Amino acid sequence: MGKTLLLFALAVWAAAPAAVRLKTDDPARFHRYYERSNRLLYVGGEYPAKTGLGVFEVATGKSRLFTFPEQFLPGPFLTLEDQDQALVESEDHSDGQGSSFIQRVDLKDGTVLGRIPLGEGVGLAGLGRPAWSREAFLILTARDRTFLKTLDPATGAAQESRLLGAFRTVHAVFDETGPWAVLRVEEKGKSRFLVVDLRAGKVLRDFPTETGFDGLVGGAGGILAHARLPGETTTVLTRLDPAAGTARELGRCEGELENLMEAGGRVYVLSRDTSVPPVDKLLRERLLVVFDERRPGPPQTLRWTKRLGEFAGYSAAAGKLYFAATEPSSVWELPADPAGLPAAVQELDRRTGEFWGSDRQSWVLGGLAVVVLFGIALAVAMRPACKSCG
Q: Are 141 and 125 within 8 A, CB to CB?
């Protein structure tokens, strides 16, 4: 019987929850997971005055928040090749003017290793270090002109800015598969999409589009664009090929798109279900649509958590997604396989109000409680009857 109890306890220990809460920080924004270092970076603290760069070690559960006096972080950041340094956009308000710059931060202790001033009137339209490159790229825009700047990660030195054209860039996305970036620009009151050769430092071509795109997202498989059909609730997803200057429709989904991410050959699209009246300002019916580019056929549509959130990244080795949710602010580890997501979302919603600190810990404590109760019940059932009683 002792072996039975031991096996039962081990089974409880081995049973992994469908969703694991990694951290709970309130507030926190702009989460991004980096598989190579197994770290989650985010902007934490009270926005905008008291923000800092957060580093969460997934393996140990330890979290650090590096703050910089008189500065707040608008959001963009990335890790450099060694994964122990990061570039982060900052605004310095110590002079009362709010000057912007890019600073290089040591992720081990938060030391600022260097600064790259952006200059008066200069805005950051894109910050990226694609997987194929050691260097980091900055797309800067000022006074209806756009520039490209390249940063050497070894020395922290930035090359002279190269003029890309007389237009203002609203947003820039970097291609993970080759040396290109796609820019959404405004020129004479009209929007255009341009392909930039990052190595040559020049614009290659206009990207042909009849209706334009609402947004661009970069991923391991390249660049995705999304656009909502005029007067409808349908969103069209398009795969862009910057090298060829062509676009291919990936699929369509219903609802108001809120977030999307590419991971492991799948595209996960999070949208708000507009056919259902909202519960309140933040808690609304949401859908997850999963497109699998490796297999033909219609996408899978799943009911998602009502909480506002965003995908933070993907671990190919673990087969896990990382999802940052609000109400409360927390980050969750979920299965990448769509078959396991319904149970994971139910677990996420069930556990949202609990703050045990670790989901594994709560499962263990709950399992031990079951074992103890089972043992007591078994002892009572097997106790010899008292012959002298009654």
A: yes
More confident residue, 326 or 5: 326
Give me the number of domains the chain comprises: 1
Q: Is the pLDDT of residue 141 over 50?
A: yes
Does residue 319 sit within a domain? yes
Cβ contacts of residue 342 below 8 Å, gap of 6+?
A: 302, 303
- Counted residue by residue, the chain has a size of 390
The predicted pLDDT at position 92 comes to: 82
CA distances from 228 to 60, 181, 254, 300, 347 (A): 42, 22, 9, 19, 32
Q: Which secondary structure element, helix H or strand E, spans residue 341, and what is its range?
A: helix 341-351
- pLDDT(389) > 60: no
Q: What is the DSSP string of 7-32?
A: HHHHHHHH---SSEEEEE-SSEEEEE
For residue 121, the model assigns a pLDDT of 86
Estimate to the nearest angstrom the gap between the alpha carbon of 27 and the chain centroid. 16
Q: 264: domain range?
A: 1-26+258-390
User: Which of the four pLDDT bands, split at 50, 70 and 90, describes residue 357?
Assistant: very low
In a domain, 55, yes or no: no
Q: Which long-range contacts (CB under 8 A, 24 or more apart) does 198-207 make?
A: 198/133, 198/137, 198/148, 198/150, 198/174, 201/148, 201/162, 201/164, 202/162, 202/164, 203/164, 203/165, 204/180, 204/242, 204/245, 205/245, 207/182, 207/240, 207/242, 207/245, 207/247
**What whole-number distance in Å separates Cα of residue 305 and Cα of residue 270?**
10
pLDDT band at residue 70, thresholds of 50, 70 and 90?
confident
CA angle 46, 47, 49 (to 5 degrees): 85
Task: Give kind and range of the element (H or E) at residue 389.
Answer: none
**293 within 8 A of 266, measured Cβ to Cβ:** yes
